Amino acid sequence: MNAIYAHAPGFVAGDRPKIVTSRFEYLDSYTLERYLATDGYKGLRSALSRPATEIHEEVKSATVLGRGGAGFPAGIKWGLTPQQVWPRYLVVNGDESEPGTYKDRLLMECDPHQLIEGCLIACYAVGLSQCFLYIRGEMVLAQERVAMALNEAYIAGYVGKNILGSKFSVDIILHWGAGAYVVGEETALIESLEGNRGMPRLKPPFFPAANGLYGQPTIVNNVETLANLPWLMCHGVAAYTQIGSKTSPGTRMVAVSGHVKRPGVYEIVNGTTTFRDLIYGDEFCGGVRNDNKLKAFVPGGGSAPWFTPDQLDLPFEASQVGPAGSMLGSGAVIVMDETTDIPAAALTLTHFYAHESCGKCTPCREGTTWLERILRRIVDGNGTDADIQQLLEVGAMISPGDFPHAANEKLGLTAVPFPYKMTTICFVGPSAFVPVHSALTLFRSEFEARVTKRVTIPVTAVGVGS
Amino acid sequence: MSRLKEANLKIAKEIIARYPRQKSALIPLLHLAQEQDGYITREAMVHLAELVGVTSAEVYGTATFYGMFRFEPIGRYLVNICGTMSCALMGSEELMHHAEKRLGIKAGGTTPDGMFTLAHAECQAACTEAPCLQVNYRYRLRVTPADLDILIDNLEAGKLSDEIPAHGVLAKVRQHIPVARAVGAIAPELVTQGPVWLDGKAAL
Ligand SMILES: Cc1cc2nc3c(=O)[nH]c(=O)nc-3n(C[C@H](O)[C@H](O)[C@H](O)COP(=O)(O)O)c2cc1C
Ligand code: SF4
Ligand code: FES
After folding, report:
1. I need a surface site. Which of A95, A452, B46, B70 has the fewest CB within 10 A?
2. Is A154's Cβ below 8 Å from some Cβ in B?
3. Whole-number mean pLDDT of chain B?
4. Exposed (0-12), middle (13-18) or buried (19+): which is B148, by Cβ within 10 Å?
5. Which chain B residue is nearest to residue A266, measuring alpha carbons?
6. pLDDT tops 60 at residue A1
7. Could you tell me which residues come within 8 angstroms of residue A394 by beta carbon, excluding any fewer than 6 positions away?
């Protein structure tokens, strides 16, 4: 029942509904032959037999939430393209690099045709005339599997000119990156796809749906978001919304890593599955390693403020996790048990964001560097009590005002809801502060135990020689 | 010599033709140059600039933004050990120390025989299989120090050369669009009308 498929490293199957991982059990899940034998390209055929606007409406009423991080409904995003401006493009975000996140790579390696079919359905519904599938540079196998699948699909008539003999024609171009986390941000992705340095663009005023690739309307969607569409077309809106909750229908892929008994990637029921189910449930991770106590967990990728056992009963539902002080982000839960060195754990994330800062805005370029340096000083045992205050001050320059954190009964804290204010163009700057702030708010004593009292340098008021 | 060779030039032209604007092909072309020479040479950047119609300074500007591009020769095998949170929680620091001892170099260094370059890497999207590493971007999951020793032994003995080609070579399968099936890329300013399938009727 809880089979682990060796050819899909990390994926743990279960008896739950499967929307995007239904083919993972097959060794040859990535071939066209297997795809066609398991309802492949049926959703496309069904979509093409109806007018494009109808397909768009269906995706809207199914409330397919974006799985890339922000959780914005795909159908609504598609509707933000301005009328009568041509051409419009689709850019697929396969740059998965948020710490803790592991799902898009599996979807590309194990079921590339499902993603291709999803891209085609989106292009048909919104009138997007060319699709660029941007895969992270370091993912060689995903690039090979998608290339193989595209080559097969072109020859078989599923991609390219006059798809399935219809008037619908679209090219899907495989593109690949070269190592830069920030390129996952949609405007940076577009810059990178234009052959430039991958630095985010300022938005507002222009969002990609209105002004994106080459200044044209562009839809950027995550791999998992698009992978949902073939199933939706085959089974219909009612079947889709029957799974999950009203505001978060369907399933979502979640990677649980860190100190659990069975780390892995799970396709869970959206909206109702709780963090307790996920970390302790027998069909999921089966508890914390060695039956240790749970200390804290990251609920939605490295950029998400941390939760403690107080928040275990929250479900995978944005409308509950946001007010509780964090976000669901990219479907990545990182578990820390009682043996975890909290300042050191926070440092790994702050280092990540400091390293990945593109340098376009000063609060991020300078601030993340200082956060890392000061935190490292504390972790190395060279910090003073003034450093703790300094960390919070540097953070306030990146994100002024109240910063989100979880409620904590023991500490008498009430939650500050997500999101935060920021002085930067994108979320990389604040993300470097997230682990520092969470760790300091929830586990301040661990920092205090690490630092020495600052001795002020004595200054004499009397001038030398007088 | 470091300009793209004939066979690669052909691939480069096929790639460029897929984009509405030529500069978009730049990152795939830089990978092609790195595949040919193991790193990106100045001559290659000048050549790419000619191919996509930008200045070589622009090519350099783009190339230097991305961590995978190297501008000096490195080891035949680039060993990237992930050090981000999930891997760190599962012992990647110890793994890195072990690798440094075994190879006799510090993270960032290259062995004198030019076989290995060791590097600290950021999250590789295999967090549930921590600690993990990549050799020339091919994964090794849940790696123990003993696993690492065996891996190095095998690489030294040339036993993995089929699975793991020299640094620079990424996907061995490339996209190929048959001419008869291609829609073709059109510069955006030449498109004046919406797609034909948006006429309110079903396509099939
Ligand atoms: C710094 C940063 C990194 C991001 N990285 C990714 C990523 O790796 N993959 C992804 O799909 N979205 C990523 N996103 C979110 C994208 O900007 C975008 O919202 C998403 O691709 C939209 O797709 P969706 O609506 O289908 O979720 C990132 C955002 C930010 C701010
Ligand atoms: S916040 Fe950081 S990564 Fe984002 S645009 Fe500014 S400098 Fe670049
Ligand atoms: S943290 Fe190492 S692969 Fe994600």
Report:
1. A452
2. yes
3. 97
4. buried
5. B128
6. no
7. A367, A370, A371, A374, A433
SS3 (DSSP) at B121: strand
pLDDT of residue B43: 97
pLDDT at residue A464, rounded to an integer = 60
Report the separation in Å between the CA atom of B192 and the middle of ligand 1, taken as the mean of its atom positions. 30
- The per-residue pLDDT for A463 is 64
Q: In CATH, what class is B77-156?
A: alpha beta
Query: Residue A205: pLDDT band by 50, 70, 90 thresholds?
Result: confident
Atom of ligand 2 nearest to the CA of A365: 7
Q: What is the DSSP secondary structure assignment for residue A381, as one 8-state letter?
A: T
Structure tokens given for A107 = 């979807």
Q: How confident is residue A454, by pLDDT bands cut at 50, 70 and 90?
A: confident
A276-281 CB contacts, 8 Å cutoff, 24+ apart = A276/A312, A276/A313, A278/A254, A278/A333, A279/A312, A279/A333, A279/A335, A280/A312
- Classify domain B6-71+171-181 by CATH number: 1.10.10.1590
pLDDT at A6: 85
Chain B hits for A147, Cβ within 8 Å: 171, 173-175
Mean pLDDT in residue range A81-110: 97
CB–CB of B204 and A140 under 8 A?
no
User: Best mutation site among A129, A134, A261, A358 for testing chain B: the one with the most B CBs within 10 Å?
Assistant: A129
CB contact under 8 A, A348 and B85: yes
Q: Is the pLDDT of residue A285 over 70?
A: yes
Using CB atoms, which residue from B62, B86, B191 is nearest to A258?
Answer: B86
pLDDT at A461 over 80: no
User: What pLDDT was estimated at residue A458?
Assistant: 63
Strand partners for A455: none
Nearest bound ligand to CA A187? 1
ipTM for the predicted complex comes to 0.98
Residue B70 near residue A288, CB atoms below 8 Å: no
Give, in order, the Cα–Cα distances in Å from A225 to each of A72, A229, A230, A278, B202.
Answer: 10, 8, 11, 21, 24
Per-residue pLDDT, averaged over A66-85, amounts to: 96
* Cα–Cα distance measured from residue B40 to residue B52, given in angstroms and rounded to the nearest whole number: 16
Give the domain ranges of chain B: 6-71+171-181, 77-156
Phi first, then psi, for residue A257 (nearest 5°) are -125, 175
Query: Could you say which of A137, A174, A352 has the minimum Cβ distance to residue B68?
Result: A137
B123 contacts A100? CB cut-off 8 A: yes
Does ligand 1 lie within 6 Å of residue A228's CB atom?
no
**What residues of chain B lie within 8 A of the CB of A350, using their CB?**
none
Residue A190: CA count within 13 A, CB half-sphere: 24
Q: Which among A9, A168, A177 has CB closest to B203?
A: A168
Determine contact: A255 vs chain B, CB below 8 A. yes
Query: What does residue A48 show for φ and ψ, rounded to 5 degrees?
Result: -65, -15
Q: How confident is the model at residue A328 (pLDDT cuts 50, 70, 90)?
A: very high
Contact between A277 and A286 under an 8 Å Cβ cutoff? The reply is no
Tokens linked to A200? 């985010």
Helix (H) or strand (E) holding A441: helix A428-442
